[in-house]
Amino acid sequence: MDNLQFVCNYKDQEPLRNSFFALAADTFELELERWYEQGFWGERYIPYSYAEGNRVIANVSVNLLELIINGVRSRAVQLGTVMTHPDYRGLGLSARLMNKVLEDYGQQCEFMYLFSNDTVLDFYPKFGFQPVEEQLFSMNCPPGSAGSAGIRKLDLSISRDLSLVTTFAAQRQPVSERLGVSGTDGLLMFYCLNVFSGNLYYLEDEEVIAICRQESGRLEIYDLISTKPVAVREIAMKLTDSVTETIVFHFTPSDDDLELAGSSCPSGLFVRNQSSLQYPANVKLPATSIA
């Protein structure tokens, strides 16, 4: 333990950065190098780590965001990339990093939250985090819906398309005023590059980028990205095809013209209320904002 040092916010230090990327790849199969090289590691993403020399061996990353809850903005910190090298587990390094994060940000935000996997569900309540059940929203697709022309599939290997998505990500409006997140352009670009690179569509007339998939009669809409408020129902109808039966939203729509059904969505969300404000019930954070 004496040979370990605490390091923070080292994106410009190549040996530590590359070691961090390697640990993330080994632990979560995350590929972060292209994301960094394209300039999407911004000032809002801050790793808190322990290192042995230039080798990162434990980490908790801070994401500085704003939550929009019923139209009201609140400061928030989302924690992510919580990981420890197998040779250093059981030494309490994650707990020490969590305490450092709480010391630095506990008085600077209204909410702190994270998404946990099933193996560490008992860990986060020790730090004041409480489990929160999310809701997944869906609606029946009206008969006769058949999509729309004017939709272009995007290819991020083409500079024009990458520039379009990057601009929209930086200037976007939150997808929902009921529960939205601001300051997530870096996270969004990670998803666009690594998770949904084959599922990006540009509705040219509406100036909306949709992240969606069609499978077995279900249209899964993960995000709608625009620089102005989006009419969710109108866009969803344009994305349907002749076999679409159900439309699923991986965020919390706030439109009044949607007849939505909600279902439990176990996601491993833990929330720590830092003020008198309360995190809302029966909502879902946007899929592309999850660290």
From TrEMBL:
Domain of life according to the entry:
Bacteria
Q: Does the keyword Coiled coil apply?
A: no
Residue ranges constituting the N-acetyltransferase domain according to the UniProt record: 14-157
Against InterPro entries, the record matches this protein to: Acyl_CoA_acyltransferase (IPR016181), GNAT_dom (IPR000182), YpeA/RimI_acetyltransf (IPR050680)
Which controlled-vocabulary keywords does the entry list? Acyltransferase, Transferase
State the signal peptide span: none
Q: Mind telling me what this protein is named?
A: GNAT family N-acetyltransferase
